[in-house]
Amino acid sequence: MDSVNRSGAVSKYSPTEIEAKWQQTWADQGLDTTPEDTTKPKFYALSMFPYPSGNLHMGHVRNYTITDVVARVRRMQGYRVLHPMGWDAFGLPAENAAIDRGIHPAKWTYQNIDQMRAQLQKLGLSYDWNREVATCSPDYYKWTQWSFLQFLEAGLAYQKESAVNWDPIDQTVLANEQVDSAGKSWRSGAKVERKLLRQWFLKITDYADELLSDLDQLPGWPERVRLMQENWIGKSTGAQVVFQTESGDELPVFTTRPDTLWGATFMVLSPEHPLVEKLTTADQAEAVKTYQTAAAAKSDIDRTDDTKEKTGVWTGSFAINPVNDEQIPIWIADYVLMGYGTGAIMAVPAHDQRDFEFARKFSLAIKLVVQPEGDARSGDTLTEAWPGDGVMVNSGPLDGIPAGKGDGQSVAAAIQWLETNGKGKGEANYRLRDWLISRQRYWGVPIPVVHCPSCGIVPVPDDQLPVTLPEDVEFSGRGASPLAKLDHWVNVPCPSCGEPAKRETDTMDTFIDSSWYFLRYADANNEGAIFDSAKVNDWLPVDQYVGGIEHAILHLLYSRFFTKVLRDRGLINIDEPFKRLLTQGMVQAITYKNPQTGKYIPPAEVNPDDPKDPSTGDPLEVFYEKMSKSKYNGVDPKDVLQKYGADTARMFILFKAPPEKDLEWDDADVEGQYRFLNRVWRLVSEFATAHPNAATALPPELSKAEKDLRRAIHTAIKEVSEDIEGDYQFNTAVSELMKLSNALSDAKCADSPVYAEGIETLVKLLAPFAPHIAEELWRQLGHQESVHQSGWPQLDTAALVADEITLVIQIMGKTRGTIQVPASADKAALEQYARESEAAQRYIEGKTIRKVIVVPKKLVNFVLG
RNA sequence: GCGGAUGUGGUGGAAUUGGUAGACACGCACGCUUGAGGGGCGUGUGGCUUUGCUGUGCGAGUUCGAGUCUCGCCAUCCGCACCA
């Protein structure tokens, strides 16, 4: 590693030294402070902010490096760039640390933030730290509460009884994502129960249609994220149809196939449907009760898991089919979910497979109303439901109409008939549910309302915000929210009437904190308002957002929702918060697993050439998996930075895989990047020593060597620029840097101004990727200002033009050789050169040329007869 | 079951969008430098029965020419899943 010293010419590349030096200098000079000069075009580059666990992992490094390259390139290109960082700092881990280790969540969190900030700063990320936010800080959550009150005032926040996941051991409510696939609590391991509780919701369903249709405005998002959101919102169009029970109650149902109404032979209600009790006859009371109890005991997962056998019970009563006045039985079954549609369905067994299975099992009538063409079927002989096309039969006014959802087909005709006759109407239904935001936890934003016996729910007035978290709390991990036990905090006078009242003790889902942080960065230190609207309207939307695919739905959907609500409150004028989105792939590392025992073996204990379990001798499975402690395959960024420096780590991560693909960590490739930076160091250092203050003004005439080098230089400028502007292709951008470096190493004109131009260009192009080494080398070249303020190299397209090109000679489409020809040659000349070529002569001799295809600047293909 | 993505050397990955497949690296081999190791430098590296043939998951097709376009399969990964 000290070979450079032996020559005595230049100093050794010492990353830790120069990285610390330049990080300090840049911070002192405020190089990364957001410019206020609004004459420049703006660019907002953002990484999803982290949860402050205390330790930076490789996934973070990858995420932030990608965004940093984008930000640095834009700065060099003359944009004013906003590139902030902050902390998604509320959440369960802090509270668990308090329960397990007796540290206050606030103390634990702020310690972690300090630790992680220090780690981030060692990566050379160009953040404007003046705009740092932490969602657990009262300065921030004051405005989270204020936002909540905006929702409340707009009628978009409400309380409702809801069935939630209840952990009987920890005595607390859990979010869906905190219950594993077996229906057990992630913390206590207890089987989760369903329990009715009064909870806070945000009415995201009011925005379902816009959240769906505006996905079209996001061409800069990955297709699959848009599709996932589309699926999640789950719009289906159809009709609402009102059935009457014999007792006179209305029983509305939603259906996507209103055209099959004449084939409805029974109805099914969800076991939780409010009308079940009333509809159940005395004879059936016991059976219904038993079924309801069994269904209630099952978690959602159990209920949706047994896809095979249908179960259900008849209520004993009947409904009237509104289209033909037929009497049809009303059943209950758990394949009908209370949370979707109206919690009740009309069952058309001939044309819906679930209804068909149910009808067969309980011997219910099956009536065919769509006759597939050229295939006479009847309900009695069907072996499965027919959901496909055909002609309507047995359907009164619809008879003879072709079945389908198109214009003039059965569905449209049915909806028109329903509306004309007042039996129902066209309607859309969504899978999306309202957002349950209540959490019975301490370490979150208190919901800023007071419950008053006489005034009801009273919002805390703006001038009394924030409702701060009390600090004198006990964390036992048992019972309701720790806040509920603090009488002095709970009991307050009603802000409206002054009588004794009680604070809301639920805190908000932490996804709320992260649903608006990207707006706050535009005006992060505003004490008098959530933000200055003009500043948000100036900076937003985020031009490039980068984060993991795991947020494809929740965070990104919630943020879009918040943005639209705040827009409708007149606070901002944008429809969508994130113009372009990049979902970066996982960072994986080699993993060894013993297939016999199922145990993971630390790589340090395995011989990679012959992977065997050191204790049992079993051959091991070898594969790449996401880094994690339990698999012993994590690589600590700290170790990499210490050994190679941030520049090498950044270069490796950018080069190893395209950003959206999974990246396989490989120490040998990290070494490779370190070697490359060392080569660049020697190349530039040696040049700077030999040619202090070298001129870059070009002579009027260039030699061939100079022209070739200059073409390589400007090809690099072109390719790197394109790679980091369109679809980010940092891997090929880095390979272009390597090509330029190789071209300079091989160049035979080291004393030419062209060579000096090449050296300077290499350093500039390298700057966004490896900012420290580029800065150090730039200064060695004699520059006073920072390379990061030196401007992006200008492309000279004239330099790209070659005097000679390589012409491919093909015979019958097969390449048989190449020749060098003048670039200026026209089609006829190219054909002539090709005919005369040795390669063509060999194959053409004695044959007839039937056709010649000439592709200018590329190839000549001879088709022989 | 529904929807989506991906499939190229020993490995990670390129390919101007129909025009020399394997750029750039990693690894490996050989050579030079070095007391040795490391490092550095140089050369080579898809396969094969090597004047040539063959090759981008498999099989057809379009074309002068296909990794790229069309049709049909296979495999892997991801999301959703009794959604009426």
Proportion of residues in helical segments: 25-40%
Please report which band the strand proportion falls in: under 5%, 5-15%, 15-25%, 25-35%, 35-45% or over 45%: 15-25%
Question: Which consecutive residue ranges, at least 5 long each, have pLDDT under 50?
Answer: 1-8
Major sheet, described briefly? 7 strands, mixed
Determine the mean pLDDT: 90
N-C termini distance: 62 Å
Q: Indicate the structural class.
A: alpha+beta
Overall shape: it is globular
Integer-rounded radius of gyration: 35 Å
**Strands, total number:** 33
Helix run count: 27
Task: Describe the protein's architecture and organization.
The protein starts with a helix and ends with a strand. Residues 1-8 have low confidence and may be disordered. It is built from 27 helices and 33 strands. The strands form 9 sheets. Strands 8, 9, 10, 11, 12, 13 and 16 form a 7-stranded mixed beta sheet that branches. Strands 2-1-24-25 form a 4-stranded parallel beta sheet, covered by helices on one side. The chain has a 4-stranded antiparallel beta sheet with strand order 6-5-7-17. Helix 2 (15-29) crosses helix 25 (771-780), helix 20 (646-656) crosses helix 21 (667-690) and helix 23 (730-746) packs antiparallel against helix 24. The structure holds one RNA strand of 84 nucleotides.
